[in-house]
Amino acid sequence: MTVMARRLSRMIQKDAEQESEMRTEIHEMKKEQSSISMMDEFAKYARLERKINKTTDKLKTHVKSRTAQQAKVKWVVNIVFYILQAALMVSLIWKYYSDPVTVVPSRWIAPVERLVAFPTGVPGGVGITCWLVVCNKVVTLGFNVFSQRSQL
Amino acid sequence: MDPGDTTSEEKTGSSMSAAQRRAEMRRRKLLLNSEDRLNRIVGYAKNGSDNNGSSRRPAEPRFHLDLDRTEPWSSSPSSQRSSPFLPESSGLSSVSHTATPERRGSPLPDCSEPAAPPSAVEDDVGGLRQRLKGERAPSDDISGSPRRGLQKYLSRFDDAMKLRGQLASEKPAQDGGSETEEFDPFRVFRLVGSILLAVFVRMFVCKYLSIFAPFLTLELAYMGLSKYFPKVEKKTKTTVLTAALLLSGIPAEVINRSMDTYRRMGDVFSDLCIYFFTFILCHEILLLFGSETP
Prior knowledge:
Chain A is mostly helical and 152 residues long. Chain A is 75% helix and 0% strand. In chain A, helix 1 (2-12) crosses helix 3 (42-95). With 294 residues, chain B is mainly α. In chain B, 61% of the residues lie in helices and 0% in strands. Chain B has eight helices and no strands. In chain B, helix 4 packs antiparallel against helix 7, helix 5 (185-205) packs antiparallel against helix 6 (212-225) and helix 5 (185-205) packs parallel to helix 8. Chain B is rod-shaped. The termini of chain B are far apart.
């Protein structure tokens, strides 16, 4: 979801080029400033310093607004995702509330066979609600393990 | 005896008596205003009785909020200089249960008024505490309870300011940092163990007893095996919930234990979900292969 939000914000924000141009400009001005002797050409040095400061402030403002927009996009993507997820779960439960996912002998899942079978009521059945909860947890754990491995 | 000498003696006598009188008045004034003086020393703005302490805003506290404290809150001699309002050995110890236990810092500095040097503060406070111990009168009890309420309010205000700062600093760290937990080998061991057990139970055991019995046995085994694995330090996140619980007066130790219990229950639930998922999956695969084989 984070990756998706980041890509979406990159698609929406087209002024990343402007930012990189400003960074390049600052870098070049600093390079030029380092070649100038402050004692000999103070006026030029000071002028360059002022330009660098002005461009740096502009860049900071730009970065701040971009970060805020990125955070907003991330927030929107999160909310949309959770709404879609909730809608999907509700629709699945609505559609398959009486059909069990699978049926096993009820003594295998004693003493919680009623809870597992909710809301189908079929003895030994695995209800859609229980199965969605289990799958949700398994997928979350799988993503966590996968992302930990990729970090390592 | 010269009349000049008599006059000067009379003058000296009257001036001394005047000086003595002034000294006596000063002494009485000091004794009467001891409470105000103490408040000024420890840095609370003297706004009179109008605000009733509601607008008192102490400066940023110089102590840290310790949610990792494991030992029971007691007046340990090795602790740092404590606030004068935290009762240690006096009869006000009953307040300590309601006072915030995380405070172990210095008295609040005052930014508006000049602060007394620390040694003077401690001497004053020690002297005042001694006086409070020795001269406790019934009227003091009555005036002490609003003071205790004020102290409690101020300590909670300090904690709220501190927690606000912590939450503000943790929020960008959480946003910028990784959203996944730290790598825990024991956690991976648990998950793999649950998967293997589910497969084993589906193959051999489920015909004879419930599938949850081996799972419970496995969890008991994990509890015993946990000490053989390296402990991964779980960072105690100060969330809004923990902040609200702290401000409502629940001790940090209780919150820590509850969070720890909740975390353990979460781990058991994760294991159960993996176990059940693997069991059903194995069951379906076996049914599939069973239906395919002639």
